[in-house]
Amino acid sequence: MDKTSQSPLTLDVLVLVVSTCVCAYATYRLLAPSSAPPPSSRTRALPAITTPMTSKTPPAKPESMYLNNSKTMYDFTVGGRGEHFEFDDCKHVVKHICPRWKDAQPDDITVKIICGGITNRLYRLLWKDLCVLVRLYGEHTEVFIDRNVDNENFAELSRRGFAPTYFGRFTNGRVEGWVDGTALEPHQMGETSPFDLLSLIPKELGKMHAMEIDMDTRACLWTKIQQFEDLAAEISFDEPVKRDALEHLQLHQTIKQRVRWLQSVLPSHKNNDGKGLLETFRGSATAKLAYSFLHDSVFSHNDLLSGNILYNPAWGRVQIIDYEYGGYNYRGFDFGNHFCEHCGFDMNLNDYPSKDKQFIFYKAYLSTAAPALLQSLTREGHLDAFLGHLHEFGNVYALAAHMFWGLWAIVQAGNSTIDFDFLDYARMRFEAFEVQLDLFCPTAKDV
Question: What Gene3D superfamilies does the database record attribute to this sequence (predicted)?
Fold first, then answer.
């Protein structure tokens, strides 16, 4: 990784800067508050990722025991009787799970299909002045998403008022509060007018990162990437076009090599989860502080694309939604991943946020995630330097995001029934890695 050269500091000045920044950092840590035929692949039957957290209840006694309670699940499968019953089944689960809907007559409930996701099917149900969202999990998504953890995260964030209301879950989905906002488009995430979304997004992300959630706090990045690698290795296709496209990705050669290199320059088991990197770090005290800050393990979204951010001008804030990939991860991954999402599904790298935009993003983020640190850096005159180092080091996490979602796309190509060219998306992510590797790590050798 190319490091910004630093003017040498005297020992006294270095001690003063480190002491001031570390004290502020410690203070902030203490105070931080359609149906389609199955894909023509020879994928083996893959085991679902599950944790023993739920208990099923009989299909009776509609009551509020489901509210913000992921451990209780209504034992009913929407669409289990056939796809043409899906609307009726959605009405049924809402009437059962949501007490205020129990007197609704099915014919009086309006159901509308909501477009937007490439993983789940979404329905909006409306009755009188009540409105909810029914989410049906995409087929085979249990292969790489632990739905127990997903629902536990959602319920906890709902309890804290960060997420829409978690009304309850059923066998193949859940009922959520409806949010009357509009999902952003990729280009809007970098806009400062007419609404300053470039600042509103990191402010909300900072609130999420400041939360302490009762779950495994070890960063999930490499565990997930290894999981996707293992699953991707099992994917094969009968169709020549897909088979050739998969072979062209060079999963077993180039991609694995790229992942191993990333593990050497980012926190991983290869460097004692970043401790080895800090011990050998050469740079100013402010640079080292930024380096350490990025590598913190915080409760992360891990999928902050435009479709997972809702906005309504009346709010004065954005609403982050969809936490199915959420969990503790390196802070920098949420940054680098989000910056990649500015490029959209067509991976137009010209839309990757500039240094100036990243400075705006990071300063807004610090105002909610680490206000004490922001005040200290501003007071001591080190803020611009700190933001510069976040920009320099944080972009490397964009490379990890390319590997993460490229491997994910291969797994999806072999399992999803959604009409989306996942293999071509994988190609774009891996090609973006190569382009940005030269930009972000121009001195990288033997990658």
Answer: 3.90.1200.10, Phosphorylase Kinase, domain 1
Q: Is 131 exposed, middle or buried (0-12, 13-18, 19+ CB in 10 A)?
A: middle
- Whether 87 and 221 share a structural domain: no
Provide the total of helices (H) and of strands (E) in the chain, helices listed first.
15, 12
Residue ranges in the chain modelled with pLDDT below 70: 1-63, 116-118, 445-446
Q: In terms of C-beta density within 10 A (0-12 exposed, 13-18 middle, 19 or more buried), how is residue 346 classed? A: exposed
Indicate whether 83 and 114 sit together in one domain.
yes
- Asked which of 130, 149, 178 is the last residue of a domain, the reply is 178
Distance in angstroms (rounded) separating the CA atoms of residues 426 and 410: 6
Phi-psi region of 213 (alpha: psi -120 to 50; beta: other; left: phi over 0): beta
Q: Are residues 193 and 305 in the same domain?
A: yes
At which of 178, 211, 237 does a domain end? 178
Q: Which domain holds residue 101?
A: 55-178
Clarify whether residues 405 and 256 are in a common domain: yes
Write out pLDDT tens, residues 264-285.
Answer: 999 999 999 999 999 999 999 9
Same domain, yes or no, for 343 and 283?
yes
> What is the distance in angstroms between the CA of the first residue and the CA of the last residue of the chain?
12
The predicted-structure confidence for 279-316, as pLDDT tens digits, reads as follows 999 999 999 999 999 999 999 999 999 999 999 999 99
Q: Is the dihedral of CA 38, 44, 47, 49 positive or negative?
A: negative
